[in-house]
Write a structure and sequence with these properties.
With 148 residues, the protein is an alpha+beta fold. The chain contains 3 helices and 7 strands; from the N terminus they run βαββααββββ. 18% of the residues are buried. The N terminus is likely disordered.
Amino acid sequence: MNEFENDSELPEEELGWSAGAGADVSLVTLLRLAEMGVSASVTLHVGGLVVTGQIIPYTEYYSALSDNMEAASTDPAVRAIAAGFRSAAEVIKSEVAEDDEEVIYTYIHLAEARFMSPTGDFIPEPGVVWRGKLSAVDGYIIGRIGSE
């Protein structure tokens, strides 16, 4: 067996980050690249669901989520929750930047996410921001499937 057949043998401790329990190290590498500004499109297979979209950093996910919430409602409570998401992302970002400890990746965030319906159509149009647990990803391909 070579080193690429078993992700657990990849030298994570030398990288300063690791995949959370059950997460694919190669997929986490794509998350790290997105944080550095090099984003990839992926199609994920998650418990029978097919979701396709663009990998984005968690800060971009929370920013887009906040924007969507604010655009959808003028309710002060919804706007307060949106502001809380935005603030939390910035706090986490600053803590990670200051911390020398290893970063453990447990979630993946997608922009323009669309889901395959039972008929093979992709919904919704336009896509949405999506957050999923890395350990729940059964498989993936680089690139999007379906009509763009």
